[in-house]
Each structure stands twice: as structure tokens, then as C-alpha cells.
Request: fold
Amino acid sequence: MFAFRSGNGATTVRHEKGLDAVAGSARAATARDAPNSPPGITIAGVTKRYGRGTASVWALDGVELTVAPGEFVSLVGPSGCGKSTLLRIVAGLDEPSEGYIRIGTPAPDGIGAMPARARMAACGYMPQRDMLLPWRTVVDNAALPLEYRGAPRRAAREEASRLLEGFGVGGFDEAWPAALSGGMRQRVALARTALTGRRALLLDEPFGALDALTRLDLQGWLLQVWGRLGATVLLVTHDLDEALYLSDRVYVMGARPGHIVAALEVALPRPRREDVIATPEFARLKGQLLAAVRAVRAGGREEER
Ligand code: ADP
Reply:
């Protein structure tokens, strides 16, 4: 499979098909797994077909992707290539037609893929739309996961209120979602995702609907939140700058059917500030990412030949 090859060779990542790759990543993840570390995510050979026969849609084909414990990984690719489908499957909202998904340390032999319900319990998922309930106030929206877990309403509201303060939406507890700006709504939605208590977070275009400056603010803020929560993140975005600014690694997906074409290590130093996007190293990485995305658009699966 095609892989990036950077000038110094250090950014190259190759993907191998099948369970050998799972076993390899299992050993690597086990070595990294310290007590208290967040779970890693392993996706191997994931295929998805909707429907049957001539009317079927082949959405994903043999997707291979890993996120190490505590890593921030982004997935970019053209619209319709299957990014959201993949995230929904990992989140346990849908099943793959074939393949292996595990959140946590993978079994060395590739046996032990998690059923959808277990995946749902293991990760926090934030869909594209913030899904705030218009009939609940900000604090009652954020407190929902705690209430689902059986916390008394008052205690849940108190904990949610504390987190909202830390997420930069203190003082808006009793506001209705309709009264908030897009950026604030996303902060509340992310606070609610964090309050699931899960440390594998799946974020689908969280800033897609925001203007450029608000987006930049929230990206910086998300990096701080990620550091504070000590979470593993898999983020879907179509914004290459966003992917590079936030991530340790960026996967590029091709379409028809969706498959991984490349992975780029982003060795920019951390902690990152927004001015990193003006550095020569950032420009170099962006050039590589653009080339891969262009190859996908120009040639479908040509890039593998
Ligand atoms: P992306 O997130 O990259 O824009 P999607 O995951 O939304 O792409 O869609 C990938 C492909 O799968 C598209 O062709 C889409 O029409 C198809 N698809 C997604 N969900 C369904 C479904 N429930 N039934 C049939 N086709 C679907």
C-alpha cells in the first residue's frame, strides 16, 4: 500500500493487511500501555457494505488504522469516502460487514474484537451536529451522561457545572442551547462527551460549521483539553491545517470504497501553539498531505499501483 516517504525517512508509515498487522500493533500497544493510560484503538480489515445485490453501497474496504494510547490521530479524505461511516462503526452505532475493531489493548492473536455494545461503552462519540437537546439547559445537557450512569441529578449538575467552567462556558449553566454561539455549543457538546468518563474520544468534524477564527480558538482549546483529560482521540476532519496542527498522525482516506491510502507522522513539537502553522516544517508536512489528498482525488485507487 502507498505510504508517505518524507525527506528524512522518519515520517514513513506502512500499512499491512490482515491480522499480522493487528498482532504487531497489539505488541506495540501493550508495550506502551502503562497503568492508567487511556485505551488505544485498533481497526483492521474493516469493510462495510450497505444493502445487497446491485443496489448495495460498498462504503469501506479493508480499512487499517491504529491509534496508540494517548495519541491524537486525524482522518482526512474527500467527502463521501466513508470517514463518518468508519467513526460510527468504531463508536458501536453500526457493525462492520467484516473486520476487527478493538478499543483497549488488542489481543495478540487478533481474536477478541469487541461487539458494538462494548465499543459503545468504551468510547465517547461526538457526531457532526452537536445534538444538544433544545429543551434542556446547558448544564442539564452536559450532565446527561452522568445521569445515564445513575448519578443523582443534583450531583450530576454540580459536576457538569465545574467542567463547563473549565471548558470556558462558565456562567452559562442555565442558558438554553439556542442562545449560544456555534463555538460555545461545541464546547458544551465536548464537555458532555468528556463527562462520559471515557478516554477514547471519537470526534466527527467538531468545528466544521465554525468560522475560521473561532475554529482556530477551539482547536487550541481542544489541545489543552486533550492534554488535561489524557485521552486518546480519533478526529475526522476535511481541514488539512486542522489535522496537522492537532495530530500526532494523519491518515488519508480514498473513496469508492473507502480505504486508507497513507499515514503521515506529524513530529511537530508539543505543546503546540497556533503560530506553528506558519513554520517551514508545517508547510513541508502540508505539502506532503496535499500531494496525498490530490492523488486520491485524481486517481481513485491508482495510488496503490
Ligand atoms: P464521509 O463522512 O467521508 O463524507 P460517509 O461515511 O458519510 O462519508 O459516506 C460514505 C458512503 O457510504 C457514501 O457513499 C454514503 O452514501 C454511504 N452511506 C453512508 N451511510 C449509509 C447508509 N446508512 N445506507 C447506505 N449508504 C450509506
The chain has one domain: 2-129+199-304. Residues 2-129+199-304 form a domain with the Rossmann fold fold (CATH 3.40.50.300). The mean pLDDT is 84. Residues 50, 57, 59, 77, 79-85 surround adenosine-5'-diphosphate (CB under 6 Å).
